[in-house]
């Protein structure tokens, strides 16, 4: 490996994490934390001990959340023959189970993937602040790698992969995908890798101080993945054009939306924090949600609201993040602090979505916005910037929604005005039919089986 390759490897191992569209906050933990825990009980949160010793022997038997799964005959080089009738062993990997879209998508898939065909394990780099822990179903084996960053988790992750020898490793979020791609020569030879990308990568790299090195890493190592799942055509085209990903390796599968579950939860009562926002005199009730970061463009939303002083607009912003104090100060500076409610992370955001007159997506770039699809599932129209990603693909087919002409506060303000003058209608239920959890999960199952070399149903 040349010096540039070695440095790219070092860069990933330092885990200067990319601003992935769906990533939640990750905090550090001591690098020498050695215990791995499997949460076998939701009530206690405790799990049985899990040894990561590499299995060099013959047929192994492992208990997966109460289901006995017969392993495969393997040697240290990864040669193995799947036993007749065995389920496809799939290891899902994610940095955290914090309150982000990637975490929600992974938990949704784990709940709906066919247990008869797949034996599932979920590996989490850092399980602290795991707000989605209870969403992981009991039949999924849960492994906490107990590391604050990917570079600390990699030795443990390699041991885990050698121990269970999955047919497929499915990772999500770019920096973890890249770390796995770099590590592929160290993995069992027959284990296949699928990476789920969450952002239009060139847009995310644009503000990176070491953009050239990150680009080098993605260009030369992402192709080691056997498949890359993209949520939109923009994302796929960007990987092929900018990072030389082979076309046959990049597939488009949108995010799954469990519309029935969302609508049930949307009927729950609003919290007290919504009292001012929901009162009749508040006028037009707008809501936005996401991490408070530059990518999400909440500064553009605040400027747009300030430009709409003649409209009776009140905005609730759901979510936390590093720019919270800056955005609070900006709202005060613009004189709109009494028209904007920063309500923090909401475990159940759907009553807010349902009660809003419109949902606003102010992003500078996206992958495929989960909260946008969830708002539509609640029947709420969306006003959005034309962010690179899947925004335009989704909204252009829904007449009740409005897309701004450009990614700017003035254009977003104009879109709000245009929408406000319309005869406002709710979005019909079938608007998210293409993103139904049943349909999308089947697509994921087919792709995993195809990569594993197993015939689908």
Protein architecture, described:
The chain is α/β, with parallel strands linked by helices and 457 residues long. It is 34% helix and 18% strand. It is built from 16 helices and 19 strands. It has helices spanning 3-14, 101-112, 150-164, 174-183, 201-205, 211-221, 233-243, 259-266, 275-278, 298-307, 324-334, 350-355, 370-377, 391-395, 409-421, 437-452, and strands spanning 37-39, 47-49, 61-64, 67-70, 73-74, 80-81, 88-96, 118-126, 141-144, 168-172, 192-196, 227-230, 250-252, 284-289, 313-318, 340-344, 358-361, 382-384, 402-403. The strands form 5 sheets. Strands 9-8-7-10-11-12-13 form a 7-stranded parallel sheet, sandwiched between helices. Helix 14 (391-395) links the parallel strand 18 (382-384) and strand 19. Helix 1 packs across helix 6 (211-221) and helix 10 packs across helix 15. The longest helix is centred in the C-terminal third of the chain and has 16 residues, at 437-452. Residues 1-5 and 15-84 have low confidence and may be disordered.
